[in-house]
Design a protein that fits this description.
This protein is of the alpha/beta class. It contains 8 helices and 7 strands. Strand 1, helix 3 and strand 2 form a beta-alpha-beta unit.
């Protein structure tokens, strides 16, 4: 039986060629704002050394680069995603690493910032992934997690679930030609929201100074923590 690590890799390898297009289409372009806002809340800049985990095709890293970050490393387990990142941005060539979050090959106390956008729910061991974050961050370094969550408003929650469970898989399946992938994605959001507390897990591995922000009617959460 294929494990989660390989299942997720296979899914993202298969949809990589349509990933950016579908992200922007299915979020109505608001995904640009989510990344930009999260990075500004993290206060990244010219002095930052950023590791973008589950970087995919590099949209977070590219936005960070626009905000003045010059030292950036991308990490993702999908070979095809990394390949597209390199095509989009020559400056990441040689600094894009194929690895899982749980077993990153970086030295302790290396980075000032870590970002992960919509990727935590794909980790095969979330707590171990966060432990890895804590290890490679410098003291006072920040980890920024951007992730979907179910909205609290009951009416909006009904609309959101209908869109996520019916419309998104239908459009995503047709465009990507992979219906399984775009069924997994919304299912993983609901399961993640029901079972996982990002803040609790981050605190358990040693992070402090937890701040949480809600964006776009509460469908996206940005959690920022520091290593003491």
């Amino acid at each position: 039986m294929i494990d989660k690590k390989d299942k997720v890799k296979n899914i993202f390898d298969s949809i990589a060629f349509r990933y950016d297009f579908l992200n922007h289409l299915l979020s109505f372009g608001v995904d640009h704002y989510w990344r930009r806002k999260a990075l500004r809340l993290s206060k990244v800049g010219g002095d930052s050394f950023l590791l973008d985990v589950a970087c995919g095709t590099g949209d977070v890293a590219i936005e960070a680069h626009k905000q003045g970050v010059k030292k950036i490393v991308g990490a993702d387990f999908s070979h095809n995603m990394l390949g597209l990142f390199k095509e989009k941005s020559e400056w990441i060539v040689g600094k894009a690493i194929q690895t899982t979050a749980e077993q990153m090959p970086f030295r302790e106390n290396t980075f000032t910032n870590i970002t992960v956008a919509f990727g935590v729910r794909n980790f095969y061991d979330i707590k171990e992934g966060f432990r890895s974050f804590h290890r490679v961050l410098k003291p006072n370094g920040k980890a920024t997690v951007i992730e979907f969550q179910m909205p609290e408003n009951k009416f909006f929650k009904i609309l959101y679930k209908f869109y996520f469970k019916k419309i998104l898989p239908f459009i995503g399946g047709i465009v990507s030609k992979n219906k399984t992938a775009y069924k997994y994605l919304p299912d993983s959001v609901e399961e993640f929201d029901e079972k996982i507390s990002l803040i609790d897990l981050l605190k358990e591995v040693g992070f402090k100074s937890v701040k949480k922000y809600k964006l776009t009617f509460g469908i996206v959460q940005v959690v920022i923590v520091e290593k003491q």
